[in-house]
Design a protein that fits this description.
This protein has 329 residues and is α/β, with parallel strands linked by helices. The chain has two domains: 2-122 and 295-325, Medium-chain alcohol dehydrogenases, catalytic domain (Quinone Oxidoreductase, Chain A, domain 1), CATH 3.90.180; 125-267, Rossmann fold (3-Layer(aba) Sandwich), CATH 3.40.50. 31% of the residues lie in helices and 25% in strands. It has twelve helices and 15 strands. The protein has helices at residues 12-15, 42-49, 116-119, 124-136, 153-164, 176-184, 198-205, 220-226, 251-257, 269-272, 274-289, 306-314; strands spanning 2-6, 16-20, 30-39, 66-72, 84-87, 99-103, 107-109, 144-147, 168-173, 189-192, 211-216, 230-238, 260-263, 297-302, 321-325. Strands 3, 4, 5, 6, 7, 14 and 15 form a seven-stranded mixed β-sheet that branches. The chain has a six-stranded parallel β-sheet with strand order 10-9-8-11-12-13, with helices on both faces. Strands 1-2 form a two-stranded antiparallel sheet. Helix 4 packs across helix 5 (153-164) and helix 4 packs across helix 11 (274-289). The longest helix is centred in the C-terminal third of the chain and has 16 residues, at 274-289. It binds NADP nicotinamide-adenine-dinucleotide phosphate (NAP).
């Protein structure tokens, strides 16, 4: 099969090579899958650069979420050849290839009628959003949710999930086009945080209360400012650091303003609580069937353009999800 592989760490365009390698051998608890589509994620860039918290041994294939057709499945796994599944290859990466292996315990049925490009994007960002907003932050109906970088992959899912949860959603984004994307995704209010003081705007929108829950994949200055527009008993979810700076928060500020900083490492639930991931997938399937969520796939690239697609993601110019189409359905 053909697989994109990183032989030395660096920028995706410099270090990714399309290699011809043997098909992967599934282990006793794994599915062998013919990959139909793989969605890009910011961690793919960090994996290539060696800046992600996990470092797979070289050479490795990036790509952390996919959808495809089962070629072989272990007895008793609940799957059989021909089933359409989505999930994340194991242990980390492997989706940017014609075939991949998925742990049967971390593979999920594609919702009925869902096209492959959307199915490829229903896993990582939606699972992260659901676990972050519900399990970690306890978002309640009628609360105000602020989603930073709302037009991005993680952000676009969080806007939809926040609306589906009955929250009033405020989104921030860089530039007027991205602000419009946030509105189109369902945000009640959208702020261009490169041009406006979003702290003042959030306070204005909430009559001075601030947001009950803030979902922050940006970190750096955006995280620092977010602490100033949290409501009483607010929850600030630490999702990621696309700004490049890991922020620090003074504990006395959390004490005085009575808020919580909530860490979120969704990937750990795959081993610590797989039943939660299954329950979340079932809820996502229901929300998709009800038309409450739908992955926003803004761009599709052919398999031979994975480096170009990742370079575009790193440029901060993409919105929603960028998907690699690897094989016809
Ligand atoms: N905690 C978890 O379990 C978990 C799970 C999945 C992903 N994540 C993290 O979530 C973050 C977002 O991932 P993603 O796939 O959604 O990425 P994405 O689609 O590229 O979105 C990231 C957004 O960050 C904003 N941004 C701000 N400063 C930036 C900078 N200097 N360079 C690039 N982008 C910048 C951009 O929006 P604006 O232009 O609007 O500012 C961009 O659209 C990553 O840090 C990822 O590691 C965490």
């Amino acid at each position: 099969m053909k697989a994109w592989r990183v032989h030395e760490l660096g920028e995706p365009a410099d270090v990714l090579h399309l290699d011809e390698i043997p098909d992967p051998e599934p282990g006793p608890d794994q599915l062998l899958v013919r990959v139909q589509a793989a969605a890009l994620n910011f961690p793919d860039i960090l994996l290539c650069q060696g800046r992600y918290q996990e470092r797979p041994p070289l050479p490795f294939t990036p790509g952390v979420e996919l959808t495809g057709e089962v070629l072989s499945a272990p007895e008793g796994s609940g799957f059989r050849p021909g089933d359409r599944v989505l999930g994340g290859p194991s242990p980390m990466g492997g989706a940017f290839a014609e075939c991949a292996v998925l742990p049967a315990s971390n593979a999920y049925a594609v919702p009925p009628g869902m096209p492959a490009d959307e199915a490829a994007a229903l896993y990582l960002t939606y699972q992260t959003g659901h676990v972050g907003l519900h399990r970690r932050a306890g978002l309640r109906v009628g609360e105000t949710l602020l989603v930073n970088a709302g037009a991005g992959g993680v952000g676009s899912a969080a806007i939809q999930l926040g609306k589906a949860a009955g929250a009033t959603v405020i989104a921030t984004a860089g530039g007027p086009d991205k602000v419009q994307v946030c509105r189109d995704l369902g945000a009640d209010h959208a702020i261009d945080y490169l041009a406006e003081d979003f702290v003042a705007e959030v306070k204005d929108i909430t009559n001075g209360r601030g947001a009950d829950v803030i979902y922050d994949p940006v970190g750096g200055d955006v995280f620092d400012a977010s602490r100033r527009c949290l409501a009483w008993e607010g929850r600030l979810i630490v999702v990621g650091f696309t700004s490049g700076r890991i922020p620090e928060a003074p504990a006395n500020h959390a004490l005085i303003k009575n808020y919580s900083i909530v860490g979120l490492h969704w990937g750990m639930y795959r081993t610590k609580d797989p039943a939660l991931i299954t329950a979340v997938h079932e809820d996502l399937t229901r929300l998709y069937a009800d038309g409450r969520i739908r992955p926003f796939v803004s761009e599709r690239f052919p398999f031979d353009q994975v480096p170009e697609a990742l370079t575009r993601l790193a440029s901060r110019r993409t919105v929603g999800k960028v998907v690699i189409v690897i094989a016809e359905e």
